[in-house]
Amino acid sequence: MSGETRFTYEEMVTRNAGFVTPAEQAALREARVFVCGVGGMGGAALQSLVRAGVGSFTLADMDVFETSNLNRQLFATTDTIGHQKVAATCAALARINPDVGLTTYGPVWVDRLDEILPTHPVVVNGMDDLAAGIALYRKAREHGATVIDAYTSPLPSVTVVRPADPRPEERLDYPTRGVDWRAITSEMAGACKAAEALYVIVHSSSANYIDHELAAGLIAGTRTRPSFAPMVIETGTLMAFEAVKLLLGRPSGVDHRGVFLDPWTMTIERPRSAAAAWLRERIARRLLSRMMS
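User: That's the sequence. What structure does it adopt?
Assistant: Structure tokens below.
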């Protein structure tokens, strides 16, 4: 066809030169990444990784795009509202890189982790299903996969949980330890959210940037999670960077405890020392108690 643009992978990634070596670009092309949840953070991470030249992905999501997704989810458009997220996302990715390898799963993906994880050493967790997330982390340990994740926080954050690292449910002392993920109750999930909120308040300035009444409703499960495009997309970008580092064997300054980015002050916030965390935890517990009363 006259005027038709001929796609080549080599031309697509030509501007990557200088950021990665030719050998590293070849490694990205051969890499496989599992992304569970292709909405906000997961979708942003996914788009960055596709444009960076990662060659193959397995995607899992069971939802459809809704109008409320338009404020932050990169693959949500007026044309994709009402469409399955996985299908719409795959169509968009093929328009970026027609050669990208895509395997997809719907609601049964948790039951297929023993098939998925052995060939996907890097996982981007972009979902907000707490029980499924616990199952993912447990299976990732079994299969030697690293999970890149973020906190439920009004600030961009990123964590990198390697196979030998403690799982979030262990580190934050969730009441789900030893419980089958399918048997996790709403009360357990609420306690898990409260434990995560406590960590976020102790180790970041997040409490300065969230309405406390709204946060209380989020912890109690009576409010939906607030999401703001600059925060969500920045978080997804941080996750994509960590995935690239892992795929290329480059060092990272992020561990299983994570880091926060305060874009309002342009400050990186790392986990506090034990003494500082002890003091702030006392203050944070009082704050959470007031929020929930």
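The longest helix spans residues 229-248.
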